Amino acid sequence: MALSHTLIRRLKNPELFEAIADPAWLGLAAGTPTFAVVNPATGEHLADIPDMGVDGARAAIDKAGEAQAEWAGLTARERSDTLWRWHQLIVRHTDDLAAILTAEMGKPLAEAKSEVSHAAAYLQWYAEEANRVYGETIPAPSRDRRMIVIKQPIGVVGAITPWNFPASMVARKISPALAAGCTVVLKPAEQTPLVAGAMVALADKAGFPAGVVNLVYAAEGDGVGRELCFNPQVRKISFTGSTEVGRLLMRQCADQVKKLSLELGGNAPFIVFDDADVDAAVDGAIQAKFRNAGQTCVSANRLYVQAGVHDEFAEKFTARVGTLAVGDGFAPDTAIGPLIDGRALAKIEAHVADAVEKGGRIRCGGNRIAGAGTFFAPTVLTGISRDMRIAQEETFGPLAPIIRFTDADQVVREANDTIYGLAAYFYASNLSRVWRVAEALEYGMVGINTGRMSSEAAPFGGVKQSGMGREGSRHGLEDYLEMKYLCMGGI
């Protein structure tokens, strides 16, 4: 089993990656069942991937458990050096990784390259942070004691990554785990397993010892997820995906009181106040809404625009959206790629139909684009009311509803009126308003006069039912460490 000839021809170094769909590379028998990976832009068959299932997950966990003590026993510098070599290989092969990513996920090639660079940045960051796992000494209550705190790796980590950012999420989850001294079992999304496989192939080349980074391809995640949750060798789960699945994982981990990091759904408000720079707000809204065809957990889902600038914003924003070219991610002018599958198309169509039925107005787009791919035209709706599905549910597509508001305090209350609390954005120039609104928004991340805020140096994560824990920054390393207090008597 191999990658398609079309995909192989796009790679500069195919010899590094052509085996990632081969059962032998994963130590599997030749007759292992497979599942297909297709290009959502063209329907092209890219590869048949070994379906490792629950047995494969259990074997990977065993390997990770066997390797855990040795990997944790290395010096921080030794782990850092290996991560650094992996970072350098990712940077060196950015073009190939981006081509694989675009083929299986559909996003424009420029966005794919940016994502791979972002993945490399996480590897670099945690290669450096590996050397900064510090303990502490505590003043003792008596002269014959010494009190010390040390930090140790939590153990085997199960990482479950999503399809929308299949490269950066691999790096963001497993690089802090590896830096802390944990071994990893990685289960990538079934829609986009190839770039994860390519990254693991480069991890092998970087020199990680056997069993430290383990890959599990699976056609469905339920069985593998249960194995990760119920297997006592796994000490922590890190998951990015829907809130519904996050709740399920929490329930399955409860009996073992297993540590969890969850980055779940969002319903991000994007607020434009009367005192905002409207042109800058339009630029920010384009970024926050249409990056990755709106298929991001931090995508602007509800655009609230104050009455004094509503019409100007709606006109300028609609004009910009109308210029966004939709097509195959490999086409040079493409700004918006396909949705991941037919279910995503059906959801966005249902949201548009519901809004129109309840009085919403389509300013541009509003329709799927005929052809082999799962394309939907970038869409702007106005006349939105709170009873519409689009005002209550995460759309996850290139659909921007604009909601007119008048009262500044009321819009903050409406923005907070959701079970989600991942990301929020607002544009304003009055400094007093900036502070008040930033502090009042019940979200883990707030973009102020910007539509893009993700960085390896900053803590990424949400509150309420958008998850728990943080990824990125120095705080992201703490989720993979256990604190141990040592009290030494008889000194």
Describe the structure.
With 491 residues, the chain is an alpha/beta fold. The protein folds into 2 domains: 5-265 and 466-485, Aldehyde Dehydrogenase, Chain A, domain 1 (3-Layer(aba) Sandwich); 268-417 and 423-455, Aldehyde Dehydrogenase, Chain A, domain 2. Helices cover 40% and strands 20% of the residues. Helix 2 crosses helix 8. The chain starts with a helix and ends with a strand.
Q: Tally of extended strands?
A: 20
The rounded Rg comes to 23 Å
CATH homologous superfamily classification of the largest domain: Aldehyde Dehydrogenase, Chain A, domain 1
Helical/strand content category: alpha/beta
- For the record, the CATH architecture of the largest domain stands as 3-Layer(aba) Sandwich
- Mean pLDDT across all residues, rounded? 97
CATH topology of the largest domain: Aldehyde Dehydrogenase, Chain A, domain 1
- Helix fraction, binned, reads 25-40%
Count of separate DSSP helical elements? 15
Key terms:
globular; EC 1.2.1.-; 6-stranded mixed β-sheet; alpha/beta; Aldehyde Dehydrogenase, Chain A, domain 1; 7-stranded mixed β-sheet; Aldehyde Dehydrogenase, Chain A, domain 2; 491 residues; Succ_semiAld_DH; oxidoreductase; 2 domains
Short description:
The chain is an alpha/beta fold.
Topology:
Layout lengths: L4 H6 L23 E5 L6 E6 L2 H21 L2 H17 L1 H12 L3 H21 L6 E3 L7 E8 L2 E5 L7 H13 L3 E4 L6 H13 L6 E3 L5 H10 L3 E7 L2 H12 L4 E5 L4 E5 L5 H13 L9 E7 H15 L20 H16 L3 E4 L3 E2 L5 E2 L2 E4 L16 E7 L2 H9 L6 E5 L3 H10 L4 E4 L18 E2 L4 H6 L2 E8 L3
Parallel strand pairs: 5-6, 5-8, 6-7, 8-9, 10-11, 10-17, 11-16, 15-16, 17-18
Antiparallel strand pairs: 1-2, 3-4, 4-20, 9-19, 12-15, 13-14
Helix pairs in contact: 2-8, 3-5, 3-6, 3-7, 4-5, 4-7, 5-6, 10-11
